[in-house]
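Methods: holo model generation. Sequences were used as deposited, without trimming of termini or removal of tags, and paired with ligand SMILES retrieved from the corresponding compound records. Each pair was processed once, and we did not select among multiple samples. The sequence and flavin-adenine dinucleotide SMILES for this entry were:
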Amino acid sequence: MSDAVGNATAELGQARGALAALRAQFERHVDALARACAIDGVLDAALLDRRQLACYELALANAELLAAEQVLPDRAVAQDDVGTRLALVFAADAIVAVLGRLEAISLELDLDPAPLQAVAADVSLRALRRAATSGPALAALGARLAAEADALGTLALDEGLELAQDAFRRFAVEVVAPQAEAIHRDNLTVPESLLQPLREMGVFGLAIPERYGGSRPDDRDDTLTMLVVTEALSEASLAAAGSLITRPEILARALLVGGTEAQRQDWLPRLASGETLCAIAITEPDFGSDVASLSLRATRTGGGWLLDGAKTWCTFAGKADLLMVVARTSADRASGHRGLSLLLVEKPSFDGHDFAFVQPGEGRLVGRAIPTIGYRGMHSFDLAFEGFFVADANVVGGEAGLGKGFYFTMAGMIGGRMQTAARACGVMRAALRAAIRYAGDRKVFGAPLLDYPLTQAKLARMAARYVACRTLAFHVGRLVDAGGGRMEASLVKLLACRSAETVTREALQIHGGMGYAEEMPVSRYFVDARVLSIFEGAEETLALKVVARSLLEAALGTAVR
Ligand SMILES: Cc1cc2nc3c(=O)[nH]c(=O)nc-3n(C[C@H](O)[C@H](O)[C@H](O)COP(=O)(O)OP(=O)(O)OC[C@H]3O[C@@H](n4cnc5c(N)ncnc54)[C@H](O)[C@@H]3O)c2cc1C
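and the model returned the structure below.
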C-alpha cells in the first residue's frame, strides 16, 4: 500500500472511530431524553412538547450521523480519490455538528458532560479535522471539482439503473431544461410537450406494479429507479418535471395499501400510463401539519357523499383529472384521525390558474392558484367544495376503508418523502454544477473565482453535502424496498431538503449579483429549494413527530401515551 492510500485509510479509520464513539454518546442522550419525557416509563405527549428543542436536535443529529456513517467508503481507493475526500469532509463536519447538538441536549438535561467532551477532545478527531476540513485541505479538494463535476455522487448502481439514469439525464438536458426557465418566469402550466414524452417514458407508473400496468415488480417496491429518475428530472426542473411523479407515487401507494381490487384495476393502469393525472388534497386552511384534525366534511347522501369545505395548496389540482381528497366522513369530531377517509374526486382537466366545475347535480368545485415565489408549473390551488357529489365507488377501500384515510395517506407519504429527498438531490446537483461552471468563468480581482481558496472550500463543502445526501437516499431506498425504512425516509427527507437550501444558497452567492437575476437558473434553484422543507411533512413535524418520537419510543419500548 502506498503512503498516500495509507493516509486515506488512516483518516477513514479516524472517522469511523469518532463516529462509533459519537453513536454511543448519541444513544446515551436518546435514553436520557426518553426518560425525561416519560412518566412511569411511558412517553408523555405534554413532556415531549416541553422538550421540543432537544427532540429537534436529536432528530437532526440522527440524520447527520447516519449520513456520515453511510457515506464513508469501506476502504480507500487512493489518497486523492475525490469521492473518499468528500466523504471525509462530510463526516468531519457532521461529527462537529452532532457534538454541538448533543451538547445542547446535555445542557438541557444537565447530564455529565465528561463522556461527550472526551469524544470532542480525542486527538484522532483533531487529526481527521485537520486532514479533511482545514482551509488548505478544502481548497485542494475544491480546486479539483471542475474536472469531476459530472461524476460527483457516482454510486455503484446495477446496469438497469445506470441506463435509466443516463436516459433521464439526457431527456432532462435536451427536453426539460430548454423549457424550464419560461415555465418558471412566466408561471406557465406544465405543457403537453413535457407531459407526453414523460408518459411515453413510463414515469407515472414507477410506483405501480407491473400487473396494474406500471413498471414496478409485482412483489416489491422499486424505490431506487424512482430515485434516479426523480433526481435526473429535478436537476432540470423541480416544478415542471421532477415533482410530477410525487402525486401518482402517493396515490398509487395509498390504493395498493387500502384500495379494493376493483379500484386498483380501475385506477392504477390509468395512473401508470399518465392518461389520468392526479393531485393530492390533504392540507386545509386551518390544518396542515396536524393532519388528524382535518375538517373537510363528507356527508352521506344517496349512493355516495357530499363534500363541503376548503382545501389549500393542492398542487396540480387544475390540470389533474383525479384528486385524492382526505375528508372527514365521521360526524364525530372527537374521532380525530379515525374519522378520516380517502375520496377520489373526478373532474375535468383545466390549464391555467383558475377553474370552476359544476356537476349535473349542482355540486361545485372552484380552484384558484396561489401565487408563489417558486415551484411554478403545476400551480398549487385553493379549493372550495360545495355539495360536491362523490360516489360510494370512489371511497378508497369502500365501506371497509371508511375511517382509515389517515393510515392510507401515511402509507403513501413514505414514497412521497423518498421522492422529495431525490428531488432535493436533483436541485443540489444542478446548483453545484452551475456554481462550479460560473466560478470557472467569472474573473474577480484579475483571477477566476475558482482559483480562490474560499470559493474552493465552499464548493468542496457543497459537493460533500450533495454526495452524502445522495448516498443516504439510496441506502434508505434499499431499506424501503426491503419493507422497512419508515423513520429513515423522514430522516433523509429532512437532511436532503435542508442541505438543498444550504447548497443553493451558496451557489447563488458564488454568482454574486447575477445570482439574484431571474435570467440565471441558479435563482430558480434557490427559490425552488426553499419549499422542500415545507411540504411532504414539514421539517419540524418530521423531526418531532416521526424521527425523535420513534427513537424515544424504541429506547423505552413503548408508544406515546
Ligand atoms: C408549494 C407548496 C405545495 C404544496 N403542495 C401540497 C399538495 O399538493 N397537497 C397538500 O395536501 N398539501 C400541499 N402543500 C401543503 C404542505 O404540505 C403544508 O404547507 C405543510 O404540511 C405544513 O402545513 P401548514 O402550511 O399548515 O403549516 P402549519 O401546520 O401551520 O405549521 C407552521 C409551522 O409550524 C411548524 N410546526 C407544526 N407543528 C409544530 C409543533 N407541534 N411545534 C412546533 N412547530 C410546529 C411547521 O413545521 C411549520 O414550520 C404544499 C405547500 C406548498 C408551500
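The CA atoms of residues 325 and 407 lie 14 Å apart.
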